[in-house]
Design brief:
single chain, alpha/beta, Rossmann fold, 19 helices
């Protein structure tokens, strides 16, 4: 759209060619960029195609009236000034239209100087509204995302941030890989905030948290009657994220059937709702994340290679917390300040013993486990300091590394063997509490149950 300060574009809608030509010449001579539409139907088409800065339209026209032009213009852009030209007989409806959002009305026959003055004021009004809206969006975005900004200054973490900042302005699909709890969604939001889509929605879904049928309904939408309980048509998240970013977390947990449909979305840029036959075009950027080794999953035929290569346009590998120990004090400080803001109190601080224990711990659950441990400690601490006694026992025991089973120590253990041993260690550390173990692992409890079942672990 042409900036209002430099030759604002004006769409003139009228069913009289003489008025159109008169205004076209006048506006061009006065420094505007004029466009004309003969009648209301052409006016509607021009509003959709041109996105003008100002619309000036006659009220009484056959087929499509000026009030319908006003409604269409306001629906497309609430900040678009619409000026009505009206004869005396239409004056009442013009005044009513101003009350409903029209910028101004001018009576025919008009004085050229008057209409130019009104258009200049409308252009200034338009510019001010657009600037104010942009400022409000920026302030809102900063406030909304300040709590989820990436925290860290270690070399490994700064390397990830630089790559994220490089890919953010593009439309490329990004695959974010890393252990559970390393901050994959934080990085996804960071990419969204730095992108041209920052003013749009950021929507996300955990692919491992829902059964296949429900997941596909959430992703692609469904039509009425497509399954039991589908009482009306529903748009999916791909459509809802139009103009923004859609984050698919734990994409490695999807079934082969869902993977085929995701591949179509990436190839065709459209979705077919569950039970539907007509494709719906989408305009959303896709970011995906997984804690699985998808290349290993492809070898096991558990993940489609064509989908992997579509997702892996740009790859980010997040380091585990044990590889960025210098960031632990910074993360602790950030989480304690966030907790204080939520409780409207002063931030608590760790004693030296508590801080030493947290820096010595291996953090198998990474940043998410650190945050959960601090939340627990804040609740249990009555004073201004957090002592070592309020930390979970697994942290104060100072296990340097996760428990290693005899299977893992075997030469070249498989990914499944390593994952099983890791899950069993976390489960043991949590006293068999599966819900808590799932939190530490950074997965949904239903996903944990499926993994335990797959590994043949009895209740």
């Amino acid at each position: 759209m042409t900036a209002p300060a430099v030759k604002p574009s004006v769409l003139v809608v009228d069913d009289e060619t003489g008025i159109l030509e008169t205004l076209r010449i006048l506006l061009k001579n006065e420094g505007f960029t004029p466009h004309v539409a003969l009648g209301g139907r052409q006016g509607l088409d021009q509003i959709a195609a041109l996105a003008p800065d100002i619309v000036i339209t006659d009220v009484r026209m056959p087929s499509v009236t000026g009030l319908e032009i006003l409604s269409a213009a306001r629906a497309k852009d609430p900040d678009l000034p619409v000026i009505l030209m009206t004869a005396q007989a239409d004056l009442r409806s013009a005044i009513q239209a101003v009350n409903e959002g029209a910028y101004y009305y001018i009576q025919k026959p008009f004085v050229n100087g008057d209409i130019v003055a009104i258009l200049r004021r409308a252009a200034e009004h338009r510019q001010l509204r657009v600037e104010n809206r942009s400022l409000r969006q920026e302030i809102s975005r900063r406030d909304r995302n300040s709590a989820s900004q990436p925290v860290g200054r270690s070399k490994a973490w700064l390397s990830v941030l630089r790559l994220a900042e490089t890919v953010a302005p593009t439309e490329s699909t990004v695959l974010i890989q890393g252990e559970s709890g390393t901050g994959k969604e934080v990085i996804a939001r960071y990419i969204h905030q730095l992108s041209a889509r920052a003013s749009g929605a950021f929507l996300s879904i955990n692919c491992g948290a829902l059964p296949e049928s429900l997941l596909e309904s959430e992703l692609f939408g469904h039509v009425k009657g497509s399954f039991t309980g589908a009482m009306k048509d529903k748009s999916g998240l791909f459509t809802a994220a139009g103009g923004g970013t859609f984050f698919l977390d734990e994409i490695g947990e999807t079934t082969p059937s869902t993977q085929v449909k995701l591949l179509r979305v990436l190839q065709q840029r459209e979705v077919i709702p569950v039970g539907g036959t007509e494709a719906v075009p989408i305009d959303t950027r896709l970011l995906a994340a997984t804690n699985r080794d998808l290349e290993e999953e492809m070898k096991r035929a558990a993940f489609r290679s064509d989908l992997f290569y579509r997702l892996n346009v740009f790859a980010l590998h997040l380091p585990p917390l044990r590889a960025r120990r210098d960031d632990i004090p910074l993360l602790i400080d950030a989480f304690l300040h966030r907790a204080a803001q939520q409780r409207q109190t002063e931030p608590k601080r760790l004693t030296e013993a508590a801080l030493d224990a947290m820096q010595s711990y291996a953090w198998p659950g990474n940043v998410r486990e650190l945050e959960n441990a601090l939340e627990r400690a804040v609740i249990l601490s009555e004073g201004e300091t957090i002592d070592i006694g309020t930390l979970p026992e697994r942290i104060t025991e100072r296990r340097a590394e996760p428990l290693v089973t005899s299977q893992v120590t075997a030469a070249n253990p498989t990914l499944d063997v390593i994952e099983r041993a890791y899950i069993m260690w976390v489960l043991q550390s949590e006293g068999g509490n599966k819900t808590r173990a799932a939190e530490v692992l950074g997965i949904d409890p239903s996903t944990l149950y499926r993994k335990l079942s797959r590994y043949g672990v009895a209740e």
